[in-house]
Model the fold of this input.
Amino acid sequence: MSALPTIRDEDWRYADFDAVGQFAPEAIDSWREVTVEAGETFRESVVIDGSDPFLSRIRVNVGKGARAELFAINACADYARLEVQVSLAEGAHFEFGGVTIGGGDAVREFVTRTDHSAPDATSNQVVRAVHWNQATGNFLGRIDVGREGQRTDAAQDFKGLLLEKGASANAKPELEIYADDVKCAHGAAIGQMDEMARFYMASRGLSPDAARRLLIRAFIADALAAMEDEAEAERLFEAALAVLQTMDGQ
Amino acid sequence: MLKIENLHAEIDGKEILKGLTLEVGAGEVHAIMGPNGAGKSTLAYVLGGRPGYEVTQGSVTFMGEDLLAMDPHERAAAGMFLGFQYPVEIPGVSNVQFLREALNSQRGTRGEEPLSGGDFLKLAKEKAGLLKLDMEMLKRFVNVGFSGGEKKRAEMVHMGILDPKLAVLDETDSGLDIDALKTVGEGINSIMRSAEKGVLLITHYQRLLDYVKPDHVHVLANGRIVRSGGPELALQLESEGYEAVAA
Done:
């Protein structure tokens, strides 16, 4: 058993330590292990929408030519952290789509660590953060490309949409590359709601709520674009957009 | 249908409209012409209710109701359409999705039943055809990657689908080539020329008025209507210039 993480632990630096202090040390040490056999596909989607601090840590071993796809809506009312460590065998693929959404003063975060130590593996991670009040959304994504990880193709894309002054978003991409033939792309941008777009939509008859919902749906769509199961994608959209109803006024 | 009386409006404390009075009746097309900076776009935005455009004096009545007391989306539901000089791009939202939500949102505000997906597509196809806009364009994101002319034609498709009582068209002719100008002009006539509808056409140039014949022409200068007349006034402006006519 190890001690509770502190702010000095690099991948916990944006965490809410009042909430972390409530976790049992066993919970911090416990990892769910998932193994995806060669050629197989693992798919999972989760909605985190409880009201207590939440922690889930998953280790995924993706076999040769296998795929792991994970999609998550993080809309917890308190601190919530989903952490994923992925190890990719030759030709394996990891797909991650995450949305942090919500207000209050909660910190909601995704932390991923992707190990590209075998050749020809690919990964694609898209995270969107939508926050208001004093809420914070974080994405800490580390990618390690080992010496054998030739022809790695790894992409990370983060965008934050802050609806009010006081909300914040942190993106921390981290790349360690020891192979020479690799493609690693990452992008991060944080912005506000386009007021002109809202007026344009209103002038065509959309209520402010309907316009906001449509714009936010469009904003988070990239994170769920790789989902094949449309009904399940719709469930995640609805779960994310339902949180907007907790937003008072504009 | 639209009655503007002694309208004063400012942006960031700077007065732009300085006592504008204008009345548009049902079945009429009014053109407002004027030099740059006269307040033409400000008038359009004030009528649409754009945030930041503050009315300090005067009144606007639309279909007997106080327009200025309504939110922008309520104005749309009441039957006003604002055609933008610079239509806004909305990545991630398709025209079809946007217009269907907008139309059904308006119908909901008016207490009408929503239009089904099938009926909506039929309507959209008809209006796109009228404006010679490929139906495929309507499946794309709102105005994203559209040329200037395509954006203006798409605006008129929006107008056709939403079927307003009054259209306020802010420089709908800018950015159009000659063929597109004709198409858009014919589109405006076909959608808006009726005894129950009105049009307020804001433009710099006479050329759109060759296709959409105005009943009344007004010259807007320095925040007020300085001269009104019939269609011949537009021709006079074109040949003599604003300075000579507005003086």
Remarks:
- Chain A has one domain: 10-246.
- The first helix of chain A runs from residue 17 to 20.
- Residues 10-246 of chain A form one domain.
